[in-house]
Automatic annotation (TrEMBL):
<keyword id="KW-0479">Metal-binding</keyword>
<keyword id="KW-0732">Signal</keyword>
<dbReference type="InterPro" id="IPR033138">
    <property type="entry name" value="Cu_oxidase_CS"/>
</dbReference>
<feature type="domain" description="Blue (type 1) copper">
    <location>
        <begin position="86"/>
        <end position="139"/>
    </location>
</feature>
<comment type="similarity">
    <text>Belongs to the multicopper oxidase family.</text>
</comment>
<feature type="binding site" description="type 1 copper site">
    <location>
        <position position="423"/>
    </location>
    <ligand>
        <name>Cu cation</name>
    </ligand>
</feature>
<dbReference type="InterPro" id="IPR011707">
    <property type="entry name" value="Cu-oxidase-like_N"/>
</dbReference>
<protein>
    <recommendedName>
        <fullName>Copper-containing nitrite reductase</fullName>
        <ecNumber>1.7.2.1</ecNumber>
    </recommendedName>
</protein>
<keyword id="KW-0560">Oxidoreductase</keyword>
<feature type="binding site" description="type 1 copper site">
    <location>
        <position position="275"/>
    </location>
    <ligand>
        <name>Cu cation</name>
    </ligand>
</feature>
<feature type="binding site" description="type 1 copper site">
    <location>
        <position position="267"/>
    </location>
    <ligand>
        <name>Cu cation</name>
    </ligand>
</feature>
<dbReference type="InterPro" id="IPR001287">
    <property type="entry name" value="NO2-reductase_Cu"/>
</dbReference>
<feature type="binding site" description="type 1 copper site">
    <location>
        <position position="231"/>
    </location>
    <ligand>
        <name>Cu cation</name>
    </ligand>
</feature>
<keyword id="KW-0677">Repeat</keyword>
<feature type="binding site" description="type 1 copper site">
    <location>
        <position position="226"/>
    </location>
    <ligand>
        <name>Cu cation</name>
    </ligand>
</feature>
<dbReference type="InterPro" id="IPR000923">
    <property type="entry name" value="BlueCu_1"/>
</dbReference>
<dbReference type="GO" id="GO:0050421">
    <property type="term" value="F:nitrite reductase (NO-forming) activity"/>
</dbReference>
Length: 459
């Protein structure tokens, strides 16, 4: 009996009385009842990995917007519909699910939406956000802000007029440097610096022997001095030594095109790398005497980098980070100025049997590109954009230095969506991708399968 009394005494001292245990269980049950619930599944849709709503207002909606009151407890359940590994997270509220593998497996996150605003839900498995698995969570009565951001993405089909077999001419080009808030991606913007309001600036197209006048005007509402350095120019600073232009002013120079090739131009005002990264680059094509052979489709593409204080995927206006620039750690990489330029904004198309020519350059300012088109082989590569050297043939991937260029040509033999990448493929996770859509009849002697083609995959 004494032993039993002693046992109860020790239990009470340790907090193991029935009353203490009940109180502790109540305190430990901190998971509140959800005020708002959502149910979604994972799917592969139109070649992308996506979330799809299961019920209610979001039923069958791809990557639906989830709207909840401020302060609400939110539960989001995701069921695996495609068999791959997935999860779901709302990073802003510290909500992160377990990973689910296999069709029918499910997971749920529960969190309190403690502040109003627009946030992101996302699958955090590497590569899945880039493949399409993200959506918007709107908390509270968030007013839709009409953004003043402009679309700075350059249309890749704007390749100017081929020179043909004409003789040398005297030409004039007007370039205007502008500083504008432009669209970086859905939900994010950046204060770009541009030539003629696009990134890259216009493709100028001339021939060897032309005499060219460049008029560089700096917009009156600019804050910074700007200039232009043409790699095709033989002369002081490629023109930069005479075109340091204050806001509202114009400066000019004239040069003779001595060498054929595809050349980069860029701003050369200190800090030069800052001006280039912000979007101040473009190319000039100097065709050889007699011009280039005709092809069916031509495209103008440049690769660039943005160095922002905010991480890739952040919403709102992104701010420049000089530390990341000096450390060469870009948060965003893109073709033609924005994340969506060659995937959503502009559609590059060709037909089976067409010969495609791409004028490709790297604005940079820092990273070398390993340019590659997934599912194609370059029939001809004019290495380092030398148009008078014999082209390389049958090339899979070609290196292009910062401030350098190349010209690639290939015949498209099979329909489908071909993905343009830098084959340093981690960069695709930061926005570096484009699509070439090829239309036409499939030739089973070239490629044949009974499987469903997943256009989001590649190498």
């Amino acid at each position: 009996m004494k032993d039993l009394i002693l046992l109860f005494a020790l239990a009470a001292a340790a907090g193991f009385t029935p009353q203490a245990i009940a109180a502790r269980d109540a305190a430990a049950d901190v998971t509140p009842v959800a005020d708002v619930t959502f149910s979604m599944r994972t799917e592969i849709s139109n070649g992308q990995l996506v979330f799809v709503g299961n019920a209610g207002a979001i039923k069958d909606v791809v990557n639906p917007e989830l709207k909840v009151p401020e302060g609400a407890v939110v539960a989001i359940t995701v069921t695996n519909g495609d068999g791959a590994m997935h999860d779901i997270a709302v990073p802003e509220f510290g909500a992160q699910s377990d990973q689910i593998v296999g069709q029918g497996s499910a997971t749920t996150i529960v969190f309190r939406a403690t502040k109003a605003g627009t946030f992101e839900y996302v699958c955090t498995i590497p590569g899945h956000r880039a493949a399409g698995m993200f959506g918007k969570l709107t908390v509270g009565d968030v007013e839709e802000v009409v953004s003043t951001a402009v679309d700075i993405a350059k249309n890749p089909s704007e390749v100017a007029t081929p020179v043909g077999n004409r003789g040398p001419q005297t030409l004039t080009y007007d370039l205007v440097t502008t500083e504008v808030e432009g669209k970086l991606s859905d939900g994010s913007t950046y204060r770009y610096w541009t030539f003629n309001d696009t990134v890259p600036g216009p493709l100028l197209r001339i021939r060897t022997g032309d005499t060219v006048t460049i008029n560089l005007k700096n917009a009156e509402d600019s804050v910074n001095i700007h200039s232009v350095d043409f790699h095709a120019v033989t002369g002081p600073g490629g023109g930069a030594a005479v075109t340091q232009v204050a806001p509202g002013q114009t400066k000019s120079f004239t040069f003779k095109a001595l060498n054929p090739g595809l050349y980069v131009y860029h701003c050369a005002t200190p800090m030069i790398a800052h001006h280039i990264s912000n979007g101040m680059y473009g190319m000039i094509l100097v065709e050889p005497e007699g011009g280039l052979p005709a092809v069916d489709k031509e495209f103008y593409i440049m690769q660039g980098e943005l160095y922002t204080a905010q991480k890739h995927g952040s919403r709102g206006l992104q701010e420049f980070s000089v530390d990341k620039l000096l450390d060469e750690r870009p948060e965003h990489l893109m073709f033609n100025g924005s994340m969506d330029a060659l995937t959503k904004t502009y559609k590059m198309e060709a037909d089976v049997g067409d010969t495609v020519r791409m004028y490709f350059g790297v604005g940079g300012p820092n990273l070398i590109s390993s340019f590659h088109v997934i599912g194609e082989v370059f029939d001809r590569v004019f290495d380092q954009a030398s148009l008078t050297s014999p082209p390389l043939t049958d090339v899979q991937t070609t290196l292009v230095a910062p401030g350098g260029a190349t010209v690639v040509e290939f015949k498209v033999d099979y329909p489908g969506k071909y993905i343009l990448v830098d084959h340093a493929l981690s960069r695709a996770e930061k926005g570096l991708a484009g699509f070439l859509h090829v239309n036409g009849e499939a030739d089973p002697t070239i490629f044949n399968t009974s499987e469903t083609i997943d256009h989001s995959s590649g190498h």
